[in-house]
Design goal:
Elements (H helix, E strand, L loop, with lengths): L10 H9 L4 E6 L3 E7 L5 E8 L3 E3 L2 E3 L2 H23 L8 E6 L5 E3 L18 H11 L8 H10 L10 E3 L1 H10 L3 E3 H4 L5 E2 L4 E2 L1 H10 L8 H4 L2 E3 L10 H7 L15 E2 H8 L7 E6 L3 E6 L12 E4 L5 E7 L4 H16 L6 H11 L10 E4 L16 E4 L7 H26 L6 E5 L9 H9 L3 E4 L5 H15 L6 H9 L5 E4 L3 H16 L1 H9 L2
Parallel strand pairs: 1-6, 6-13, 9-12, 14-20, 20-21
Antiparallel strand pairs: 1-2, 2-3, 4-5, 7-8, 10-11, 14-15, 15-17, 16-17, 18-19, 21-22
Helix pairs in contact: 3-4, 10-15, 11-12, 12-13, 13-14, 13-17, 14-17
């Protein structure tokens, strides 16, 4: 159900639903947009609010300021409240449940007074290589650069002064939830990107906690378990909105305290929920500023793979995650260039039209890219062992430069590192998939990126209209799960019977010509990686 579908529903009935609090609110802090979704008792979106923001590269660290976090959240909530007011002629005073999600990982460290000790270090930073390597070897478990524990241990290795005052470590979602409720907790999916989770207990792995404490002995004021937030599975109540929290979210004072919150989650977990991909042998691909695939596993992998993160669903089941730092940002930059050219010609075209025109042109491009090559790396990319990014486009002298092949190459570049990680799962580990879903901005143009992804991973790829509102809708569904959960009901059962029953899906099957073309492109992409490294080394 998309927002346009709600237009046909009686506004008076929805207004009564809103005023009686039979709703849920989900808020997700993504890399370039903060989004809020209001859902009704049937989990369909009835109002939306947004606020655009961007990270800053300050002192060679990707960050967002605290002021940007809270001003952005307030602007997003105000946008949601305005949408409710415009559509239904009422104020958004309460809701039945609320949830917060955000981009996973990163590093937010606080002292005992709740003061931030160092600027927020986001998932996008890849300056934690020494810590990542040391912890992966110690634990026998892949610890990626962006994980919170890698950031903490890198600070230890660097001898950073702030560690003497550290009292609490959390993620962006955990930070916002803490300020709204006073509780320092994380949903298990978000927590699984902080420190390894013991699937049997649903909490942090106690053996590895002890190993870390021994490694960092004398260099931190507290044991690691004392620094980390508590872990909660989906469906558990995770506190209530305090008076101070309500005012933080809505300074106008219209929103009332007392609302129940679900555990805060990461964007990977909300993507799984938004695509009904929490059952074993299902998976999803989320594509925005970053691109990642989440595959719910039948069991443990045979060995450690540096390309694969092991995280969990919001219910605590084991997930193989292929995470690529670079997604659609370079595509957006090229679209912006074409928009400038269009404007210079005096032709009026909105961004949606420009994107759709460019994306659709890719369908007629050469299946292998026609000798064109692109790298979309704005930041470092651990899967290809790049510590920094340099976006590149080049071609062989005999190639034909056409818009169609150029755009196909740019879309292929956005999927290339994902393919490298998926090869590890599908070929090295023989992981089987019953279904794969896709969501995110890359897939808004129907039948383009979806078809090319199907070719890239040689697997049918489905998209559905329920996931149109993305992770913000996913966390609203998790909030609704807290509100509506039957005794003992699993998250998978709730999604299947209460949320996605009757949902329509559009499935793209791999085209053999595109599969062969993408394979040829990948051979040239991997062979050309030294060119990307040379650009990093010499510019």
């Amino acid at each position: 159900m998309t927002m346009s579908d709600t237009q046909a529903r009686p506004a008076a009935g929805i207004r009564n639903t809103i005023e009686s609090g039979r709703t849920a609110i989900g808020i997700e802090l993504g890399s370039t947009r903060i989004k809020a979704v209001l859902t009704g008792p049937d989990h369909e979106a009835i109002a939306v609010g947004t606020h655009d923001w961007e990270n800053q590269f300050v002192d060679r660290v990707w960050t967002y300021s605290q002021e940007a976090i809270w001003s952005g959240l307030q602007a997003c909530f105000a946008s949601l409240a305005a949408d409710v007011r415009t559509r239904y002629g009422t104020e958004l005073r309460t809701t039945g449940a609320l949830g917060v999600s955000a981009m996973m990982h990163g590093y937010l460290a606080f002292d005992a007074d709740g003061e931030l000790l160092t600027p927020f270090r986001t998932w996008r930073n890849t300056n934690t290589g020494d810590a990542s390597e040391a912890l992966s070897e110690l634990f026998g478990y892949n610890i990626p650069h962006r994980w919170s524990i890698a950031h903490l241990y890198q600070a230890v290795l660097n001898g950073e002064e702030h560690l003497g005052s550290i009292n609490h470590l959390t993620t962006l979602a955990g930070y916002v939830h803490w300020k709204l409720t006073g509780r320092q907790v994380l949903g298990v999916g978000d927590a699984s990107g902080v420190f390894p989770i013991d699937i049997a207990t649903g909490g942090y792995d106690s053996r590895r906690l002890s190993q870390f404490d021994e490694l960092a002995a004398g260099r931190l004021p507290l044991k690691l378990a004392e620094l980390l937030p508590a872990v909660l599975p989906a469906g558990e109540q995770a506190g209530t909105l305090t008076e101070a929290g309500a005012l933080l979210l809505d300074p106008s004072g219209t929103l009332q305290p007392g609302v129940v919150l679900c555990p805060p989650e990461g964007d990977a977990g909300t993507g799984m929920v938004a695509t009904n991909s929490v059952a074993r042998r299902t998976g999803n691909v989320s594509a925005g500023t970053s691109i990642f695939a989440m595959i719910v596993l039948d069991g443990e992998l045979s060995r450690v793979h540096p390309e694969i993160d092991l995280v969990t669903t919001p219910a605590g089941d084991l997930v193989a995650m292929v995470h690529c730092n670079n997604g659609a940002s370079e595509l957006n930059a090229w679209a912006g260039l074409f928009a400038e050219f269009t404007a210079a010609l005096g032709v009026e075209a909105d961004s949606g039209t420009i994107f759709e025109t460019l994306f659709r042109s890719a369908l007629s491009g050469a299946p292998d890219g026609g000798g064109l090559m692109a790298f979309n790396n704005l930041s470092g990319e651990p899967i290809t062992k790049l510590h920094e990014g340099r976006p590149l486009f080049f071609r062989t002298p005999g190639s034909a430069l056409s818009l169609a092949s150029f755009m196909r190459t740019q879309l292929y570049a956005a999927l290339a590192t994902l393919r490298i990680g998926m090869d590890v799962l599908q070929k090295s580990e023989s992981v089987q998939l019953d279904r794969m879903f896709a969501h995110g901005g890359l897939f808004k143009t129907e039948g383009v990126a979806q078809n090319l992804l199907a070719a890239a991973i040689n697997t049918p790829v489905s998209v559905g209209n329920l996931a149109a509102e993305g992770g913000a809708w996913g966390i609203a569904v998790l909030a609704g799960f807290v509100r509506d959960r039957a005794e003992g009901q699993s998250l998978d059962d709730f999604l299947t019977t209460a949320v996605f029953a009757g949902a329509e899906l559009d499935t793209a099957n791999p085209d053999p010509a595109d599969v062969a073309g993408f394979n040829e492109f990948m051979q040239r992409y991997v062979a050309a990686l030294p060119i990307q490294q040379a650009a990093v080394d010499n510019s």
